[in-house]
Write a structure and sequence with these properties.
This protein is an alpha+beta fold. It has helices spanning 2-7, 50-63, 88-92, 100-103, 112-122, 136-150, 154-166, 206-209, 215-226, 235-241, 304-314, 326-351, 353-357, 361-389, 394-400, 402-426; strands at residues 11-18, 21-28, 44-45, 172-173, 186-189, 192-195, 211-213, 257-259, 264-271, 274-281, 286-292. Helix content is 45%, strand content 13%. Helix 5 (112-122) packs across helix 6 (136-150).
């Protein structure tokens, strides 16, 4: 595939569902330079496509009478008592008020109950129900609700109540144990890719992005969502999941994003080294899932043209490509050149040391000290503002694009070296 070559992705698997028929295939390798081919049974991390499984579990518990979608979360989790009411439906539809950054904050070593308690203590960034903001926090809280209501661990409930009834025998929910048969993920590293050393995963992030599946198993999952039958949930509940959840969430249902004009429900997924997309076309009973063992970066080695190219091809629709994203490419090149520019400026400061030593008076001192202040501002922008633009922290950004974080640190360090070197030169050596 031409798009696969352009994306530099080692391998992919896809499945197509058309009514009662389905097929699943693989292409490429499970690891760059490896000899094991990707098949329909190869396991991939599906990232945020996992949210649809969590939503399905909540809807299922609702149909079993264990909860109501309009229940305040405090009914099921005592940590939310005394807080502004947030309903389960608001969590499902990303209208709870929790922000993207809150959802991407560190949850290392926490259980789902502990993660939910911490989010309850922090409180939502906005008034619940006032608007839409995509946040992993919503689904992490829902995972804790599933555990509290069912009395089972999240992974156990999803396995026994969803995966097993559907025959998804290869699919599992991440734990801290290594996963046998999992393709090796690859992430961008400067102008190439490098393998991601993944083993298990954080329990607290499982409901928002921790399902591991194959194209073959995902075909069973999409078939269930499209078959119009009562099975793990009722046909009516499936239809409800694929409708706007509320006025505040016109383009998101329950665990699925909505393309109302095109008649599609879809969800993408991104984890370090993996990307995925699942698409449903309910009116035609068609569905597609594409799983790739590579994740994209800032304009180079992007994966989304591959995801959407294969998806559109499977749906019989044209795909003209996303074009060259020179905005992102240019920004990446700027970050790449910035450390070199500061090093060159440092050399220039040494060469022009007599001029620096000749500076005197108020304006001379300002010209010497201002670069140091500018270096501090640059550090704030690069290490705090830039990660925030990605909806995460610097540590979170390092998980997805470590090369960019290296460049950000290099820019901060070299700018400080330049500013301090100017001061050192100006205040040492012979004065002119």
């Amino acid at each position: 595939m031409r798009q696969m070559e352009r994306s530099n992705a080692p391998g992919l698997a896809y499945a197509v569902v058309d009514g009662a028929e389905s097929r699943a295939e693989g292409a490429g390798m499970t690891r760059s330079g490896g000899e094991t081919p990707v098949t329909a049974q190869t396991l991939f991390r599906i990232g945020s496509v996992s949210k649809s499984f969590t939503a399905l579990a909540i809807v299922q518990l609702g149909e079993r009478g264990a909860l109501d979608l309009d229940d305040p979360v405090s009914v099921h989790l005592s940590a939310f008592e005394g807080q502004a009411p947030i309903s389960l439906r608001q969590l499902l539809s990303h209208t709870s008020g929790y922000s993207t950054v809150q959802g991407n904050s560190a949850a290392h070593g926490l259980t789902l109950a502990q993660r939910a308690a911490r989010l309850a203590a922090d409180g939502p960034a906005q008034t619940p129900g006032s608007g839409w903001a995509y946040s992993n926090a919503n689904y992490q809280i829902l995972g804790a609700v599933i555990e509290a209501v069912s009395g089972e661990a999240y992974a156990d409930y999803v396995t026994t109540s969803i995966l097993s009834p559907l025959g998804m025998t290869s699919t599992r929910v991440q734990t801290d144990a290594p996963v046998e048969g999992l393709a090796t993920g690859h992430q961008p590293f400067f102008f190439g890719r490098r393998a991601v050393q993944t083993s298990g995963g954080e329990a607290a992030s499982a409901p928002s992005g921790g399902v591991i599946s194959s194209a073959g198993d995902m075909a069973l999952y999409l078939s269930m969502m499209l078959n119009g039958q009562d099975d793990v949930i009722s046909a009516a509940a499936k239809a409800d999941m694929l409708r706007p959840a509320s006025d505040a969430s016109p383009y998101y249902g329950l665990g699925w994003a909505l393309d109302l004009e095109g008649g599609y429900a879809l969800h993408t997924g991104l984890t370090p080294g993996f990307e995925a997309i699942a698409v449903l076309e309910p009116a035609q009973q068609r569905g597609v899932v594409v799983l790739v063992n590579a994740s994209g970066g800032m304009g180079f080695s992007e994966v989304y043209p591959l995801l959407y190219g294969v998806t559109n091809l499977a749906l019989g629709e044209p795909y003209e490509g996303a074009g060259a994203d020179w905005g992102a490419k240019s920004l990446y090149l700027l970050f790449l050149l910035m450390p070199a520019a500061y090093l060159a400026a440092s050399i220039g400061a040494f060469v022009q040391r007599d001029g620096l030593r000749a500076k005197s008076g108020l304006f001379g001192q300002i010209s010497l000290w201002l670069p140091l202040a500018m270096s501090g501002v640059l550090a704030l922008v690069l290490l705090w503002v830039v990660p925030g633009l990605f909806g995460t922290t610097l540590g979170g950004l390092a998980l997805y694009q470590p090369d960019l974080v290296i460049l950000l640190y290099a820019s901060v360090i070299t700018s400080a070296i330049w500013a301090l070197l100017r001061l050192l030169i100006a205040h040492t050596g012979p004065r002119l």
